[in-house]
């Protein structure tokens, strides 16, 4: 075909400058649009108020609604889960975090941590007992790994489980646990004589409590808790039978980090869109500030990093769907995308000027949320060291 007979390229789309929607099929687009519509109806009208109050009211109802649209454990198969592709799950995470990081965290912890742990490492009885109700949002789950004194070094956790006849006695504390105070089940990791094991803990068990953490300045529209385990007695079949050691919780974290790679770009997109609209309408010196060179340079740089980040997320999603995604590549994505998302939010704030700190706009809310996303499920430094080891073959952790 000669160049003269080729069809003309489509018009430039400011919302999709690289034409990334061409990579998506109709089912991908339908899932994205379903989640986007849900957030527009159920989250965006209220999120500034929830954030200002430091609450997520009606979280159990929201969970049931999310279950109703197939967003909980959506990339898992069977047991009432949607069986969506990794890319489709990523698109959902992007739309959820474009509304608020706390909403994406609710979904991520439910599906990629608590449900995934049971689905991947649980017995058939555990799967049947918990997964269908969790997929429907009837039961909320949480994931207990981080401790007050042990975040980046989970191998040193102090929570322990000891055998008492055929039962287990679980004792310890977990910290910064999303969904903890509203969860019906907790997946808790503990030291045992045989190594680190995971336990499925009904939160109504005697000795279990989950006081909510207050006075947060990030992820305010999210339930964050401490888990206190005071000699919680569990039956023998509470342990996840298919894994021993840190491989269990770390594989769950890798699954959740993948969702963050997409989600961070949702927060960035929301902030970028706010900056573009503001730049087109805010006038200074007799014309819109979007017509000034320095503002256009900021917008162009943000657009480049935003859509590069989405393209990176899409590439990692295709690798995950093909069974070829490595944990080091997930670290690559989380390190880059969260770091760039924060910078996009900060630059957007400069375009909005003083209005950038107002909850009338989403920018400062996203920026403060991303400060938590930057360090949870692996700090910047830990992901740098993961990549450093992969690049050099030398372990700098020890």
Coarse shape: globular
CATH topology of the largest domain: Butyryl-CoA Dehydrogenase, subunit A, domain 3
Distance between the termini: 59 Å
Q: Beta fraction of the residues? A: 5-15%
CATH architecture of the largest domain: Up-down Bundle
Task: Specify the CATH class of the largest domain.
Answer: Mainly Alpha
Protein name: Acyl-CoA dehydrogenase family protein
Domain Acyl-CoA dehydrogenase/oxidase C-terminal: 245-391
Domain Acyl-CoA dehydrogenase/oxidase N-terminal: 26-138
Domain Acyl-CoA oxidase/dehydrogenase middle: 142-232
Task: Give a structural overview.
This protein is an alpha+beta fold and 398 residues long. It has three domains: 20-135, Butyryl-Coa Dehydrogenase, subunit A, domain 1, CATH 1.10.540.10; 141-238, Butyryl-CoA Dehydrogenase, subunit A, domain 2, CATH 2.40.110; 247-392, Butyryl-CoA Dehydrogenase, subunit A, domain 3 (Up-down Bundle), CATH 1.20.140.10. Helices cover 49% and strands 14% of the residues. The protein is built from eleven helices and nine strands. It has helices spanning 26-42, 47-53, 59-68, 86-99, 101-121, 124-135, 247-281, 293-321, 327-352, 363-375, 380-392; strands at residues 141-144, 160-164, 167-178, 185-192, 195-202, 208-209, 224-234, 283-284, 287-288. The strands form three sheets. A four-stranded antiparallel sheet has the order 2-3-7-6, with helices on one face. It has a three-stranded mixed sheet with strand order 1-4-5, with helices on one face. β8 and β9 (287-288) form a beta hairpin. α7 packs parallel to α9, α8 (293-321) packs antiparallel against α9 (327-352) and α9 (327-352) crosses α11 (380-392). The longest helix is centred in the middle third of the chain and has 35 residues, at 247-281. It is globular and about 80 Å long.
């Amino acid at each position: 075909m000669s160049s003269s007979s080729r069809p003309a390229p489509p018009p430039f789309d400011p919302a999709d400058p690289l034409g990334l929607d061409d990579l998506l099929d109709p089912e991908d687009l339908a899932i994205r649009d379903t989640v986007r519509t849900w957030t527009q109806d159920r989250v965006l009208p209220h999120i500034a108020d929830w954030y200002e109050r430091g609450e997520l009211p009606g979280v159990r109802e929201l969970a049931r609604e999310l279950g109703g649209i197939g967003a909980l454990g959506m990339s898992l198969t069977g047991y009432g889960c949607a069986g969506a592709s990794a890319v489709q799950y990523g698109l959902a995470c992007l739309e959820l975090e474009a509304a608020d990081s706390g909403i994406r965290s609710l979904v991520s912890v439910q599906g990629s941590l608590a449900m995934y742990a049971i689905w991947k490492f649980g017995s058939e009885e555990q799967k049947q007992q918990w997964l269908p109700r969790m997929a429907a949002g009837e039961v909320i789950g949480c994931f207990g790994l981080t401790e007050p004194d042990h975040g980046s070094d989970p191998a040193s956790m102090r929570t322990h489980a000891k055998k008492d006849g055929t039962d287990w006695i679980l004792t310890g504390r977990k910290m910064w646990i999303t969904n903890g105070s509203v969860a019906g089940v907790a997946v808790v990791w503990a030291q045992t004589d045989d190594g680190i094991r995971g336990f499925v803990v009904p939160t109504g068990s005697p000795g279990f409590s989950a006081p909510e953490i207050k006075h947060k300045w990030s992820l305010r529209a999210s339930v964050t808790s401490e888990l206190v385990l005071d000699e919680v007695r569990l039956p023998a079949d509470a342990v996840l039978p298919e894994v021993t050691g840190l491989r269990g919780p770390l594989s769950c974290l890798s699954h959740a980090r993948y969702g963050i790679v997409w989600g961070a770009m949702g927060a960035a997109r929301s902030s970028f869109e706010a900056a573009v609209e503001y730049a087109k309408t805010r006038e200074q010196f007799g014309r819109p500030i979007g017509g000034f060179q320095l503002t256009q340079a900021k917008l162009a740089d943000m657009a480049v990093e935003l859509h590069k980040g989405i393209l990176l997320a899409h590439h990692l999603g295709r690798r995950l769907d093909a069974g070829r995604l490595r944990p080091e590549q997930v670290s690559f994505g989380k390190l880059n995308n969260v770091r760039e998302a924060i910078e996009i939010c900060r630059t957007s704030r400069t375009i909005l000027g003083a209005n950038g700190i107002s909850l009338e706009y989403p920018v400062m809310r996203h920026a403060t949320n991303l400060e938590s996303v930057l360090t949870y499920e692996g700090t910047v430094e830990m992901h740098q060291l993961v990549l450093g080891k992969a690049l050099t073959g030398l372990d700098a952790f020890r």
